[in-house]
Amino acid sequence: MKATATLRYLRIAPRKVRMSVDLVRGKKVVEAQSLLQFAAKHSALPVLKTLNSAVASAVHNFQAKAANLYISHIAVNEGPKLKRFRPRARGQAFEIQKKTSHITIVVDEIEGTEAVKPKKGEAMNAQKEIIEATSTKKEVPKTYAKEKQSIAPRQKEPKGAARFFRRKAI
């Protein structure tokens, strides 16, 4: 079961759109959506909208779960170019090509896995384990602590010519 969504005639050059597309190629849909949402590229928003359209199509048409979907194929092809002319020196005219893109996204369901919701108690235990694993404090090695104590404080230099030629401030 593959759901497809296409966006045609996007007025951004395909080379620029491919940078956003390369971030999410082959990833799970949930991960791809979060990457595109916070990407600092102008082309990330149209790619995200197209991805959301493909996910909605899969959920509606095939009753797939959004958590089980991944991007099986994503491509950016070149669309038609809008040709404009710019006047240049000595009566010349240079052509400007305003490029367009076609985006095609195919999402597919991961086989053999089903999104099973854990019971309330199991979910709480899993969250507690994650919190405990991430909140353990790392102790500073004793050798580093001794070295830090043995370093003498920086001595102040007299004001005047010596301070004027020094590069770093105290």
Report a brief summary of the structure.
This protein has 170 residues and is of the alpha+beta class. It has helices spanning 14-24, 29-37, 44-62, 120-134, 142-150, 161-164, and strands spanning 2-10, 69-78, 82-87, 93-98, 101-109. Helix content is 39%, strand content 24%.
Task: Please describe the topology of this protein.
Layout: E1 2-10, H1 14-24, H2 29-37, H3 44-62, E2 69-78, E3 82-87, E4 93-98, E5 101-109, H4 120-134, H5 142-150, H6 161-164
Antiparallel strand pairs: 1-5, 2-5, 3-4
Helix pairs in contact: 2-3
Walkthrough of the structure:
The protein is of the alpha+beta class. The protein has a domain at about 1-110: Ribosomal protein L22/L17 (Ribosomal Protein L22, Chain A). About 40% of the residues lie in helices and about 25% in strands. The protein contains 6 helices and 5 strands. The chain has helices at about 15-25, 30-35, 45-60, 120-135, 140-150, 160-165, and strands at about 1-10, 70-80, 80-85, 95-100, 100-110. Strands 1-5-2 form a 3-stranded antiparallel β-sheet, with helices on one face. A two-stranded antiparallel ribbon has the order 3-4. Strand 3 (about 80-85) and strand 4 (about 95-100) form a beta hairpin. The longest helix has 19 residues, at about 45-60. The protein is flat, with a radius of gyration of 28 Å.
